[in-house]
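Repro case for the chain-ordering regression, as requested:
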Amino acid sequence: MTSTAHRFGSYGGQYVPETLMPALTELERAWTDLRDDPDFCAERDALLRDYVGRPSPLYPARRLSEAAGHPILLKREDLDHTGAHKINNAIGQGLLAQRMGKRRVIAETGAGQHGVAAATACALLDLECVVYMGTEDMRRQRPNVERMELLGARMEPVQAGARTLKEAVSAAIRDWVANVDTTHYLIGSCVGPAPYPALVRDLQRVIGDEARAQVLARMGRLPQRVIACVGGGSNAIGMFTPFVEDGEVELVGVEAAGEGIATGRHGAPLTAGGRPGVLHGALSAVIQDEDGQILEAHSISAGLDYPGSGPEHAWLRDSGRARYVAMTDAEALRAFESCARLEGIIPALESAHALAWVIEAGPSDLDLVCLSGRGDKDLAEALGLLRARGRP
Amino acid sequence: MNGLERIADALHRSRARGLRAALMPYLMGGFPDIDSSLEIGRACARAGATLLELGVPFSDPLADGPVIHAAATEALKQGANLAQVLELTEALAPELPVVVMCYANPILARGLGRFADQLQETGASGVIVPDLPFEEAGAVLRACDERGLALVPLVAPTTTDERLELIGRRARGFVYVVSVTGTTGERAAVDGTVASLVERVAAHTDVPVAVGFGIATPDQARAVAEAGADGVIIGSRLVRAAGEADDPPAAVGELVEQFREALRTTNA
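-- result from build under test --
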C-alpha cells in the first residue's frame, strides 16, 4: 500500500489495529533517543559482557570442517547465558521497557528460548513477565516451560489453531491491544510492525559485529559465506547486517523445509516464494492460500515453525544480497547428531538447519555459521525421533 | 446513490424513524454456515437494522476477541471464503446498506483493484479494515473514493488528537470508535470515558460517529447513544447468539429488535 520510512523496499509497515499505533510511535521515539545514548549503551554493554558472557567465542570446528570438506567457523551463541542469542534482544528491550516506565512485559515464544530470555531479563530488571506459548510447543519444549516458571514468568497457554508460534504471537498482540498503556511487548524476532524489525536487528547485530572482528583477527580475511538459520530471522539478521556492505561475502539464510517444500508442510516462506502477505503487522514473505488466509507452518524445530519471516529478509532476498534455502526435518536431525558426535556440541534444532546446509553445500574457502542456540531443550523430541529411526 | 450517499441516507432515515442512534449489527460471513449467515442478515434487516457490518473470516484476526475469532475459525473450517461473502453482500445489499469488514491480507491477496471493483459490483456501501491504520491506508482510500465506496476508519481511546485530526479528515461514511482499549467482545459495563471520546472524535470530523466493541446489552446501547454516538455497533453479542441458538436467524433478529427498542427516542 503506501511507502514510508517504516519499510525495507516494499516490505514491512504497520498493519495493526489503531489502538496500538500510539504505542508504536512511542516505542520508535524511545528507541531513536536511546539507541546511541551513552548511558543506555554502557548499561546494556555491561550486562552483555558480565551477565550474558559476551563476546561469544568464534570456534574453528575442525572435525565438522573435515566432514564437510571445507573450513567452518562457528559463532557460539549457544554459549550465551540462557543458551541462545535471544538474550541479546531481551536484555535490550527489557532496559528499553524500564526507561519507558512500562513495568509489565509480555512475550511470545515458540521453542521457548525467547520466553526464557524474556523471563530472565525480567527477573534481572524486576519487571512483571507474561509469556504466551502454544500448547503444542509447551509439550515439545517442556524444560523451557519449567525454566520460565522458575524465573517467575506467568505462562499463558494458547489453544488456538495449531497451538504453535503463530498463535502465540497473535495472542500476545491481543494482550498488548488491551494493556498497551502499562505493557511493553517484547517481541522475540525481527518480525511485527515497525519499528520492531529494525529494533530487533539493532539489538542482535552484536553477533555479526563481534564475528566480523573475530574472523578478521583470526584469519586475516572475511569469510566466503555467512550462514544462519531463519525462522522469523533474528539471529540471521544480526549476523548478516555487518556483512551486508562486504559485497564479496555471500549471505545464506536457511529455513525449515519440514517434510519438504513440495508437501506444503514446511516453514520456508522466503524459499518457497509466492505473493507477499501481511502477518502480525508487517508485509513480508508468508505461507498463505489463494484467499490470503495464513497457513500453518511445519518444522521439527519449534523456533522455525512459523509461516512468516522478517520483512528485511524478504528485501535482502529480492535485492539479491542474500539467498534463502531450506533443509528438511530429516537433514536437520542428521546434522544435530553429527555436530554432537564430531564436535561435542549439541546444537539447537534451529541451528542444526544451518549446519545441515553447510555440511552439504559445495566447496568454500571459509564458512562462518551462527550456532544460534544449544540443543538441550530439544533432547526429548530429537532423541525420540532418532530412536524411531533406529539410532543412536 | 453511491455507497457514501447510501450510508448517509440510512443514518438520516433511522433518525427520522425515531432512533436515537443508528443500529449497526455485525455478523460473521459464513457463520455458523453460509446459508444461515444470509438468513441472519435478512433477519437483521427485518428487525430494523440501519446498516449491516459483514465480516470476512480471517485466519489471524488481531483486533478480535475470542467470540469473533472462534466464529472466523469455524467459518473457515466450513469452507467460507471471500467470494462467498461477496455473494452474501450482493444478496443483502438490496435490503440495507452493507459495509464489509475485512483484514488487510485477503484484500492484498485478491488485489486491491479487483477487490474494490467487486465490492462495488456487489452493491456494498463501504469497507472497514481493522488492521489498516491511516499510515497504510492511502491506496485503499483512493480505490474506494474512485468507486464511491466508504473506507470507514477506526479510532481508539489511545488515539491522540493529532491522529484524530488526520483520521477525521479522511473518514468516509462514519468513524468507527472503538470504545475500549482492547479487542472485540462483550463487557460488563460501558467505559465511562465513551462520552468524552465521542465528543473528541466528533470535533475532528464531519461524518457521523459510531461506537462499537464491548456493547452487549440494550441498556449499554442506550447509554452509548445518550453519550452522543450517531450509531451503535453490536458484534460479539450477536455472533455468540448465532453460535449458540437452535434457530440463529430468529435469535439474532430478536436481539436486534431489543436493541432497536432501546434506541427509540419516542414512540414514533
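Ordering looks correct now. The mean pLDDT of chain B is 96.
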